[in-house]
Amino acid sequence: MAKYTAVLRELVEHLDVDVCFLRTNDRVLDATRLVAEWPPRPNAPDPDPLALVYFRNADPVLAATKNLTDVLIVRPELGGHHDRVGTATGREQTSSATVPLLSEGVTTGILCLVKYGNREWSTREINSLKTVAAIVTQSQARIAALDRLRYLAEHDELTGLANRRALLTELDSRLTAEHTHPVALLLIDVDRLKVVNDALGHAAGDEYLSILGRRLAETLPDDLVARLGGDEFVILLSATADMARAEQVARQAQQVAREPVTVRTEEVGRSISIGVAVSTPGTCSAVDLLGDADQAALAVKMAGGNSVLTFTDEMRTRAAVRNDIEMHLRDAIRRDELILHYQPEVDLASRKIIGVEALVRWYHPVRGLLQPDSFISIAEATNLAGELGRWVLHEACHQHFLWRSAIPGLALGMRVNVSPAQLIASDFVSTVARVLNENEMEGSDLELEITEHAVIHDLDQVLITLRDLKNLGVQVAIDDFGTGRSSLGQLKSLPVDTLKIDKGFVLNLGTSPDDLAIVRSIIGLAGSFGLDVVAEGVETDLAAQMLLALGCRRAQGFLFSTPVPPATLRRMLHGPDTALDGTTPVERPSRDW
Ligand code: C2E
Ligand code: MG
Ligand code: MG
């Protein structure tokens, strides 16, 4: 404004007028607004009647400036305008020249020069006024464009909320060491927005997000509500917030999200997953803190959404281990850090070893022996399942070959776990065929264990794979049976051979009537579909006896043996009698081969 005032002052001095002012048109309010004037009016009434004038209330001259396209000269004989100017300035007789500010044919405002008394305007004066007006228009357009750019740089286009960049800037400043109060934020991820996008279109999803964003900001006026992008929002709590307030805000946000929004005649209300993260200034960066909240929100999502979780140090440690494993797993496969342990499967009647399940372990150079639960899911999430699975299959079948070579006449089933990703890989069956061939193994010596989850995922492709495996004579078992959601109908259409009862039902078989009922029904189910059945997790003699009584012959569990390294298993196979009973000392896995 000061810049404009200086220009107006120049005009007053050079053109020998008394007053000069600049007004802009406000198209939204349908009004004209005073931007700058010279000289200042020290005694202007408050509120100033000239500051904002609605066109509908304006005197004829000011009203005429709304769509003014050419210079308007006013001389003392006109009324109206002068009354208002008179009230504001205390002058009676004035002459004025009003020059429109034109931008692409639209009147964006006016530049007006006033002389008390009578004054005429030469053509030269009028032309130079037009030039000044053009320059003012240009500079206003530039300022508006800069304002717009600044706005866009800091706001999210869809919701008008602060965007990621603005949030990071604010977070950075709140996290500097000179502050003492903890910084708390909530990361909100809308649950299953995809359903809305798919059913009603992306525009509808956008509309929901935009309304949700606005409602969050309205509900939480003291906190900074930002949109990170996609369906993610962040609420940065005001500086004095504590954990109790974070919980309260989380509840409020859930409430807001649930309130239905009408999008194209449909009522849309979503649940949300919220991750909370808190940090002391000076201890972490804005990106770290957001990452923590994101982890927590992700954990909520994985557990089904619609809940709140606060990021803890324990989660941080777990994430670090996970990242480390993810970074080094590929190398582990190449560097020979993986080994297979084998858990015997026995015939419950004779207690003889009839098969072994290959179970992978990782001798991590730093973390020591890692169990599969800590890295299989990571392999599956990072596209390494195929490579890992191929290694396991090769290794297990080669071991089978070595045992057969050492023990003539050995009859031993080899059970190998297969990841869902392997089952739908196009070269899976040919890999199995090649490995069998390389190790001179019968298809029927190999039983692949798949999970119900894999089957449900891509049924058509899995069906093709299973039929091709059947042609190789390979057996297929459904592992962890009873924990998934396979329906009877699905089971009937699946060319599988065996159901492997999940250890969760077997561990307490002797004491839990519920588990007994489930195991009995699984064994019955297997019988009616002509499937074999095997129990895992047999830890007690009682469980073993009950299984046998229920008609289950095959079993594995700590009662017989834990998974053991190949050399140990070989000794077990070689024993005077390969029968295992509860008295066999349970050997802990070690690398003694
Ligand atoms: P799973 O295939 O159901 O394997 C059985 C798991 O139960 C093994 O755990 C075994 O040590 C454990 N177990 C056996 N008997 C008992 C018992 O009596 N009591 C108890 N409490 N546990 C028993 P492990 O070796 O830690 O393997 C865990 C899971 O990791 C396996 O479950 C399997 O899903 C997966 N896995 C292991 N190796 C591989 C592999 O090579 N490839 C794939 N894709 N998954 C594997
Ligand atoms: Mg298994
Ligand atoms: Mg299992």
Relevant terms:
binds ligand C2E; 593 residues; 3 domains; Alpha-Beta Plaits; 8-stranded mixed β-barrel; Beta-Lactamase; binds magnesium ion; 21 helices; alpha/beta; TIM Barrel; 6-stranded antiparallel β-sheet
Average predicted confidence as pLDDT = 89
Strand order across the biggest sheet? Answer: 14-15-17-18-19-20-21-22
- What characterizes the major β-sheet? 8 strands, mixed, barrel
Q: Remind me, CATH topology of the largest domain?
A: TIM Barrel
CATH-assigned homologous superfamily of the largest domain: EAL domain
User: Termini, distance in Å?
Assistant: 85 Å
Tally of discrete structural domains: 3
Explain what the structure shows:
With 593 residues, the chain is of the alpha/beta class. The chain has 3 domains: 2-154, GAF domain (Beta-Lactamase, 2-Layer Sandwich); 164-311, Alpha-Beta Plaits, CATH 3.30.70; 329-574, EAL domain (TIM Barrel, Alpha-Beta Barrel), CATH 3.20.20. Helix content is 44%, strand content 23%. The chain contains 21 helices and 22 strands. The strands form 4 sheets. An 8-stranded mixed β-barrel has the order 14-15-17-18-19-20-21-22, surrounded by 4 helices. Strands 3-2-1-6-5-4 form a 6-stranded antiparallel sheet. A 5-stranded mixed sheet has the order 8-9-7-12-13, sandwiched between helices. A hairpin with a 4-residue loop joins strand 14 (338-347) and strand 15 (352-364). Helix 7 (202-219) crosses helix 8 (243-258), helix 12 runs parallel beside helix 14 and helix 14 runs parallel beside helix 16. The model is unreliable at 582-593 (pLDDT under 50). Residues 479-480, 500, 502, 536 line the site of one magnesium ion. One magnesium ion binds next to strand 19.
